[in-house]
Specification:
Blueprint: E1 4-10, E2 13-19, H1 25-32, E3 51-54, E4 57-60, H2 66-69, E5 73-75, H3 88-95, H4 105-118, H5 124-130, H6 142-161
Parallel strand pairs: 1-5
Antiparallel strand pairs: 1-2, 3-4, 3-5
Helix pairs in contact: 3-6, 4-6
Amino acid sequence: METEFYSLTVNGRARTVQAKPNTTLLSVLRDQLDLTGAKCGCGTGDCGACTVLLDGEPVRSCIVPMKKAAGRSVLTIEGLARGTELHPIQRAFVECGAIQCGFCTPGMIMTAKALLDRNPNPTEDEIREAISGNLCRCTGYVRIVEAIRYAADLLRKEADENG
C-alpha cells in the first residue's frame, strides 16, 4: 500500500503528514508529530489510553485510520494547556490526586473535556458513564470522578468571570 499525504489540524495548527491510509492516528501523533501524551495501551480501542478529541468528540486514536482523520481537527492532551498554565481539568486532576501512574490520565482528561464541553454540570452517574471506556488500574476511579466534578466547578467559575 502506497503512502499518501494527509492534512489535518492538530492542537490548532495545520499539519500535513505522510502515511499509509491504514496507519493509525495514534501512530502519526506519536511517531511523526512527537505528541506522546496519548498512550498505546491495548491497540484495540478497549482501554481509552489513546483518547484524543476528533472534531470535539472523544475517539480511540489507536483504531482511527489516517484516511478517517484527514481534513479534521485533532486535540491532544498537549493542546489543552494555555501556555504554561494547566487547563482547569488538568489542574483538577492534580489537585484531587487523580493521577497515580499517569498512564491513563491523558485519555481520562480528554474524555472529561468532551463530557464537560457538552454537559457543564454532569451528575456522578453521567461522569462514570462518560469514563466507562477508560480503564485505570491504579485509582479505583473515586478521585477521577471527584476531579471531573471539581473541574466542572472550575470551568463554570471561569465562564462566570469571563461573562
